[in-house]
Every structure is written in C-alpha cells, then in structure tokens.
Amino acid sequence: MNCEKINILKEYVPELTDHQLDRFIRYYEMLVETNKVMNLTAITEFDDVVVKHFADSLSIVCEDKCVGGTVLLTHPATHILDIGTGAGFPGIPLKIAFPDISITLLDSLGKRVNFLNDVINELDLNDEGHIEAIHSRAEDYIREPGIRESYDLVVSRAVASLNILSEYAIPYVKPDGYFVAYKSEKTEEELKESQNALKILGGEVSDTRTFTLPDSDISRTLITIKKTCLTPDKYPRKAGLPSKKPL
C-alpha cells in the first residue's frame, strides 16, 4: 500500500503531524479489515478512502488556505455530535485532526458502534478531548437527560433529505450553534423543501458551499444551518415519522 495519498489531508489541516497521519492509516486498516465481515463501506481502496471519506470529512474545516470549508474550527467547536456516523465519518477524522475536541458518535446499529469503540481504543482517541460512541437512534438519544440543545455543532453525512436530517439534528444544537449537512453537489431542491422544517425547528441556512474534493473531480456541498431559537420539545417526533411525514 502506497501511503503518499494521505498527505492531501494537509490541504485542509496543514499542521497534521506524522503521528496523526499514521492514525489515519491505522484507521483505514481497521476499516477494511472489519469490512470483510461487516458492511461498513463500499469504498475500500486506500486512495479512494483518503479522498472520499477522510478528506470529505475534513472539508468542514474553515481556513483561508483550505479547499471548501465552513464554520468549524476557526473558533473550535468543543462539543460535537455526529448523527448517523456509520463507520465513523465525519467524526473520527475530525477527532484525529483535532484531538482536543469533544465528540459523540451516534449510530443505530450496535455492530458499528462496537467497531467505533475498537477504533477509539486502538488509536487512543480519548487521550485528550473526550470521544464516545453511542448506540441509539437520533429520535431516542435526544430524550436522555441533559442532551437536548447541548451541542455546539452537529454534523451528518447521512443520506436523508435535509428536511428530515434537520428534524433529527437541530434539536441537539445550542442556540447560536450550528448544524452542518454534508451533501452531494445538487442541493437546490433540498434547500427549497427544507424551508418549512427550518422555520419550525428554529434554524436558518447561514452558508452553502460547493467545492471539489482534492485530487478528484468529485463535487460536494456543505450546508450550514445556524440555530436561531429553541426547538419545540415535541421534535424530533417518534421513530419513523420524520421520514414518513417530513416537515
């Protein structure tokens, strides 16, 4: 395996150390090994994982010299929730790149959460800021004491439409905090369809940025939503309703 491709991550985080890059490589090794017995990703070639998973996850980072970029880490968000994290994207790459952040990885499949805990332990990701993997649905975890409206930033690369994702995510965000949705290039229709949901949930679109991932022709869009007021307690609705009857 030629690991030179890993250096493109410095286009987003120039100060990445060799130790951090080694952590990304070890993460890749664990991902493809576990993928042999459990479906974590259809993308398994090293160069593809670096671009389509690692670089894509870090594209949220905002610095003038970065490609893409949005609200995170010009003023570091200290308490982050990754909804529907799956194999750990974008949460684990963000944690590797910025060890002092606190991040919660939320996923509904127990086997994936077990994998995430193995990665956390193997890479010693709790040696600075806190990271935990939680087995729960977004509609259920919000009911835990102290969780609602407690996060500075919520992120998600889940495939649901923005109006559905917003119902899952915005109730977790503090007022004046942010929800960032990682999307493919074409988002105009989703943005239009999400206006009613955002109004109900207390969010507004503050930035939409489309860019190309490094060393590729793959377009991505980051939609940044600012939490402007408290979300009514009845949201998110019980499991299944957000997708069956979107706001």
CATH architectural designation: 3-Layer(aba) Sandwich
Summarize model confidence as the mean pLDDT.
90
pLDDT below 50 for ≥5 consecutive residues: which ranges? 64-71
Helix residue percentage: 25-40%
Radius of gyration: 17 Å
What is the tally of helical segments? 9
Q: CATH class, please?
A: Alpha Beta
CATH evolutionary superfamily: Vaccinia Virus protein VP39
What is the first-to-last residue Cα distance? 47 Å
What layout of secondary structure does this protein have?
Layout: H1 18-35, H2 46-58, E1 79-83, H3 91-97, E2 102-107, H4 110-122, E3 131-135, H5 138-141, E4 151-156, H6 162-169, E5 173-184, H7 188-193, H8 195-201, E6 203-212, E7 219-227, H9 241-244
Parallel strand pairs: 1-2, 1-4, 2-3, 4-5
Antiparallel strand pairs: 5-7, 6-7
Helix pairs in contact: 2-3, 6-8
